[in-house]
Amino acid sequence: MSALEKSMHLGRLPSRPPLPGSGGSQSGAKMRMGPGRKRDFSPVSWSQYFESMEDVEVENETGKDTFRVYKSGSEGPVLLLLHGGGHSALSWAVFTAAIISRVQCRIVALDLRGHGETKVKNSEDLSAETMAKDVGNVVEAMYGDLPPPIMLIGHSMGGAIAVHTASSNLVPSLLGLCMIDVVEGTAMDALNSMQNFLRGRPKTFKSLENAIEWSVKSGQIRNLESARVSMVGQVKQCEGITSPESSKSIVEGIIEEEEEDEEGSESVNKRKKEDDMEGLPLETQHLLLFLQTKKDHPYTWRIELAKTEKYWDGWFRGLSNLFLSCPIPKLLLLAGVDRLDKDLTIGQMQGKFQMQVLPQCGHAVHEDAPDKVAEAVATFLIRHRFAEPIGGFQCVFPGC
């Protein structure tokens, strides 16, 4: 959970300081460039990694919900990818390119309810039960009564939703299940510190480039290549002013950040603006400050994770036993074994699932080391004869 490695992925407690540039792909190497060369923080389109994008309509009691999915591949089992809290399907972009080149499969990366470009009637209901039903409904809407073989792969919160989906038998053609860096014990322990973390991270960004730079330098995503495509799904342009109260909360967030500026220049400018506005009605001051804020900081988070707190316990409580009880081949990928809980430790010793530890990764394992995760998943698929290798891919079976 890396105090959620500088983002709410929800899943692991921090066990090591952020190490920018420790990602496992070629991009990670770029992160270690010397100070003489400037890194490129410009955003990259999803189309460089996925073959297509579509919005899947799902009928329910309140009307129609629309779920954004990104797809690649035309043959083999479907790998249905579920992202972590606050992220989007774009977090799987680099992994998608890596897995498609190693094994014959199809990719469906889904923006979960309340995240990314998915639009639902009730975006605030992020209960495990509701989101698991969403996954089942999307599969039914895409494939009807005869879905192809499907493997659920989820990171952090998405890993928990994958387990809830599997244990509720919402995907009838389920082949296998993979959780990435989410363990019940550490997740439950970390929930107490989540609100403090959320209050401490930036509330707005001046640009997409600024957001991408923050994600890398903070250690949230240790792979620059992945950050350039992934952060586009985490932030959005600030919306119009709705009330003096809402504008005040935004402005206060910006002032906090400006006062922390290393050179102090923005803080001085802010005090000058306040002096100039003395005597104006309070509502006018808020409006003027909001307009300046919108100009200087036009991007904010897509989802207010602090408001989802009432669902956190439901995502993770009982997760280990649910995972162990699913009667299908299972894979657990972790950034470290330092906090593996008792139930999973016993289950792993009994051979109930395959486990692999990927070192030098942050919480966003599939973004930090997409090639290593692709190798692990491809090996799992080939070992169980779910898919065929391509491109001369050679399995390297792990020791655990």
Question: Could you give a short description of this structure?
Answer:
The chain is α/β, with parallel strands linked by helices and 400 residues long.
Overview of this structure, please?
Helix content is 40%, strand content 15%. The chain has 15 helices and 11 strands. The strands form 2 sheets. The chain has an 8-stranded mixed sheet, sandwiched between helices. Strand 10 (330-334), helix 13 and strand 11 (354-357) form a beta-alpha-beta unit. Helix 2 (93-100) packs across helix 15 and helix 4 crosses helix 12 (319-325). The radius of gyration is 22 Å and the shape is globular. The chain starts with 25 loop residues before the first helix and ends in a 17-residue tail after the last helix. Mean pLDDT is 80; it is low at 1-34 and 241-273.
